[in-house]
Amino acid sequence: MKPEFSRRQPVNETRCERCSLHARCLPLGLDLKALESFDAIIERPRPLKRGEALVRQGDHFESLYVVRSGSLKQSVAQEGQRDQVTHFYLPGELVGLDGIGDTACYGSVVALESAFVCELPFSRLEDLAERLPELRGQLYRCMSRELRNDQRMMCLLSGRTADQRLASFVLGLSERFRARGCSPYCYHLSMSRSDIGSYLGLALETVSRVLGRFQDQKLVSVEGRELTIHEHAALVALAEEGVGRHSGI
Amino acid sequence: MKPEFSRRQPVNETRCERCSLHARCLPLGLDLKALESFDAIIERPRPLKRGEALVRQGDHFESLYVVRSGSLKQSVAQEGQRDQVTHFYLPGELVGLDGIGDTACYGSVVALESAFVCELPFSRLEDLAERLPELRGQLYRCMSRELRNDQRMMCLLSGRTADQRLASFVLGLSERFRARGCSPYCYHLSMSRSDIGSYLGLALETVSRVLGRFQDQKLVSVEGRELTIHEHAALVALAEEGVGRHSGI
DNA sequence: CGTTTTGCTTGATTCATGTCAAAAAATCGC
DNA sequence: GCGATTTTTTGACATGAATCAAGCAAAACG
């Protein structure tokens, strides 16, 4: 069993200054004084059990959240269609940016495993941003980065094959784990095949089959939800390959 | 021939106060004094010819742009793959939000027809936002709205059939035209079938065929790039239908 | 004003991926 | 620890949409 985030983030480490996510979190770049003001507006870590909802679609928008440990998924339910998973969130990532300026939350956010989140009431964050240009900049940058991620996702969904989508997905997670100081080559998938399928626009059976094929080709090994990357370069090559759908090049 | 935006927006109307897009544009909600400060940082309308690039992928990010007339597309070129269209921009819409905090522009933005854009140098906009809370809020709201749009797009791309994608596309444009005071039932497509296909993740032949089928079913008529919606309700029903891909409901 | 280019439509065929079904494995609850 | 539930794998089959290949229409160009 791999160590999980929850084990690495003792609950009592409640101050931003001491938080090990400091370097990847919203208050990045704030000086000590600013960080203390920031720290002051945070609602202290809130524990979530697997399957528990942090926000429900349609809830009144009030806060952003930073994942402190564990992982979550966002999913949106539309008009009698199957729920669609739109995001996975790892420690340090910001939840709720898509609710700003809207009355209701766009989707539901649910814990995929035991998790802690810090709550940032948006109105207080705005007040603080008025005084802290750095924080303002960070907020813009976070939103803009998310826009770029979403666009990358749109490209993935509209132009690439199932194999390429899964290669990108596996590599994307790998990169995110690496950035958090976890092994990029061997990690735990906290989401089900069905979640992955929904996120990537594939049937869950296809996810299972492709992962199996990757394993046969010795690119990765998958045992349940433990994934090990063996041929990083080959996955990159596959993900970037010119021959997607709609006659590549 | 329908009136086009360019005919409705005389070039010499250069002040924000007199701009007819006022109500849909970034400075929405600013008081007169604030509006004047905002007006002062705008680089005056810049004309673009069909096919001309406003920004090229990889350009250094410096400014946001507001479309004043005409329309544009954003497309990103990846690793030897076919270009992928990621956005269409209509008058009043904000171009470039995805470049904030990044050194380079994420994609190229090209005029689909003759167009004018107002340039907003981002550093000056940031300075101004420091003093104008309303403007700050507007910026957050614009970015957040775009996040929601991108997510809607992701849902469209990963869960819906070709017919549903095109129905949504046609209705989406209709809504955007309506919001701009143009006819929502009869409008001009400034983009090619190939652009639409790229945007929706479909082959251009499929776009052509589905549009043809819609015409046979008397939902719309399409003559070249002139589109008329006959059965709005039926299109809505189709777009929202539970039976997408991945066994609806 | 004819020629070339570009964009659009249409048909035939193929293929990747979805759907349905059932078994196997893992996880959960008591 | 054992039956019940959920998740995952695997197989057989169906099908929507891509691809390939013309042909046609409408601009753009000399």
From TrEMBL, chains A, B:
Record-annotated HTH crp-type domain positions: 160-233
Protein name per the record: Fumarate/nitrate reduction transcriptional regulator Fnr
Record-linked SUPFAM superfamilies: cAMP-binding domain-like (SSF51206), Winged helix' DNA-binding domain (SSF46785)
SMART domains linked to this entry: cNMP, HTH_CRP
UniProt KW keywords: DNA-binding, Transcription, Transcription regulation
Taxon lineage: Bacteria, Pseudomonadati, Pseudomonadota, Gammaproteobacteria, Oceanospirillales
Domain spans labelled Cyclic nucleotide-binding: 38-96
Coiled coil regions in record: none
Superkingdom as given in the UniProt entry: Bacteria
Annotated PANTHER family: CRP FAMILY TRANSCRIPTIONAL REGULATORY PROTEIN (PTHR24567), FUMARATE AND NITRATE REDUCTION REGULATORY PROTEIN (PTHR24567:SF75)
